[in-house]
Amino acid sequence: MLPLVVQPPAAAVSAVVEATRPVSQPSIPAPSPTSTVAPSPTPLPRITLLFTGVIVPARCVQAEIDARNDASYVYDNVRELIQGADLAVGTLNTTLSDYPPHTGCRFTYVLISDARSAVAAGEAGFDVMSVATNHIKNCGIGDCGDRAFLDTLDNLRANGILPVGAGDDLAEALQPVVVEVQGVRFGIVSLGMVEPMTFATDSAPGIAVLNDENLQTAIANARKQADVVIAMPHWGPEDTSDPNDYQLHFAQVAVRAGADLVVGNHTHVVQAIEQLKGIDVFYGLGNFIFDQNWDLAHQQGVILLVYFEGPNYMGYELIPTHVDGDGTVHIAGPDEAAQVLQRIEEASQHIRR
């Protein structure tokens, strides 16, 4: 539910929701008449995490990058917001490699971007990128998929971005990325279920396959190393705001396995939000950067801000966005933002268990 609508800077409408799960608070014993007052406990650090929808600087976006010889322009209106987060996480659904040829500005399911977009994402402030996605091995020429895929991982790392959800084999793909922020260790895992050709095996590179066993294993791996565990599944049917039965199932598996937060993507439109056993599940954040400008719903998404005090989850904020056909992202104006939040609210009410 989205009970509170506020008016933040830049005339954007967002929804701010406080956590409803119990939050532990340090207790201060009352002083006795003969004792001295104990010093106040050190305040827990306030930490902001940021998540975006799907990032695909391919096709017509790549053509615009070629024309400008610059990939950074897509972030001009949101760079300050990304850089202001303590930990910024995106979802990449294309290769970022100079190896395969570009497809040009035309419709194709082969989504190819070059390494300039890795540089731009790093400069914009991203720290982690979920790569357990269905177009991450796009190329279509012999072993080009593996080559471009591994090149993408290298290009992300070279620009200060940690890829999660992929590796040289399945065991590596199931390992978390653990980032320490102000003394709190955040463990992120990512798994995908959409395109079998991208799946890692015991002896081949690729993404972590989303199934019950792998999801439980990945979360258990993260729990051993982190204070807060975040699961990022790439799941569900495209073009609908209503999560399907598979998404509802895997959300339950993630929560039961010990995830503290679930942030999904893939569907290219915003999806519902659900709370399971006090854990917030965001089924899909829509498009962040893509050229799908054939209708308004595919040009919309949300930036998700998640707030912590130390390891304690405090709530979240949704900031609706709009992306142009050339990939430029904007904070949505009040009317469009209200429309996006209403779509999420309606989809959330549709969930039945």
Observed structural traits:
353 residues; alpha/beta; Purple Acid Phosphatase, chain A, domain 2; ten-stranded mixed β-sheet; six-stranded mixed β-sheet; globular
Fold blueprint:
Layout: E1 5-6, E2 14-18, E3 46-55, H1 60-68, H2 79-84, E4 87-92, E5 95-96, E6 112-113, H3 116-124, E7 128-130, H4 144-158, E8 162-164, E9 166-167, H5 170-173, E10 177-181, E11 184-192, E12 206-207, H6 212-223, E13 228-234, H7 245-257, E14 261-263, E15 273-276, E16 279-282, E17 287-289, E18 300-309, E19 312-323, E20 329-331, H8 334-350
Parallel strand pairs: 3-4, 3-17, 4-7, 5-6, 7-8, 11-13, 13-14, 14-16
Antiparallel strand pairs: 1-2, 2-19, 3-18, 9-12, 10-11, 15-16, 18-19, 19-20
Q: Per CATH, which architecture?
A: 4-Layer Sandwich
Number of helices: 8
Text of the CATH class: Alpha Beta
Give the helices and strands as they follow along the chain: EEEHHEEEHEHEEHEEEHEHEEEEEEEH
CATH superfamily: Metallo-dependent phosphatases
Main beta sheet: strand number and arrangement?
10 strands, mixed
Low-confidence stretches are: 1-12, 21-33
The shape is globular
Helix content: 10-25%
The structural domain count equals: 1
Using the CA coordinates, give the radius of gyration. 20 Å
CATH topology descriptor: Purple Acid Phosphatase, chain A, domain 2
| Strand residue content | 25-35%
From the helix content, strand content and strand pairing, which structural class follows?
alpha/beta
E-strand count: 20
N-C termini distance:
16 Å
What's the mean pLDDT score?
A: 88
